[in-house]
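Try this one yourself first.
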């Protein structure tokens, strides 16, 4: 793995105990704690190319691909398992929206649809968002600058 990180890394993302490096060729390299995204063998073939953006919370990662699909991995109960909304994440996703710092996409025909992939742990409810991952789905969008 160390040799894979020597060149081409454009960004590094983290969960509480794992890292994901996005490379210039659109691949992702992960390492760290198995349970919170350091081990991505279940989605490794989908992370070999086409990744344009990564979003992470404390327990899981989500990768946006150039075809508009989203791949998730990490703690299944906190965003790493997106099977319940898989049909909505196969294509057409345009961006990740962070409700605290970067929610700038506004649909022309009304607000875009929003999907929550996991609920916050009960012990964290008073101190964090109730939606660890927030995705905007296809809708005519305008980026506000």
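Now uncover the answer:
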């Amino acid at each position: 793995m160390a040799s894979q990180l020597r060149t081409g890394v454009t960004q590094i993302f983290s969960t509480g105990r794992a890292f994901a490096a996005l490379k210039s060729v659109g691949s992702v390299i992960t390492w760290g704690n198995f349970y919170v995204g350091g081990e991505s063998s279940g989605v490794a073939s989908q992370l070999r190319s086409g990744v344009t953006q990564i979003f992470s919370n404390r327990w899981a990662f989500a990768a946006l691909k150039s075809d508009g699909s989203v791949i998730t991995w990490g703690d299944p109960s906190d965003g790493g398992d997106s099977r319940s909304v898989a049909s909505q994440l196969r294509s057409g996703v345009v961006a990740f929206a962070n409700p605290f710092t970067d929610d700038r996409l506004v649909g022309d025909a009304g607000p875009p649809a929003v999907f929550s992939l996991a609920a916050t742990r009960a012990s964290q409810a008073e101190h964090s968002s109730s939606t660890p991952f927030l995705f905007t789905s296809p809708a005519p969008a305008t980026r506000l600058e």
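Discussion: The mean pLDDT is 76. The CA atoms of residues 54 and 63 lie 4 Å apart.
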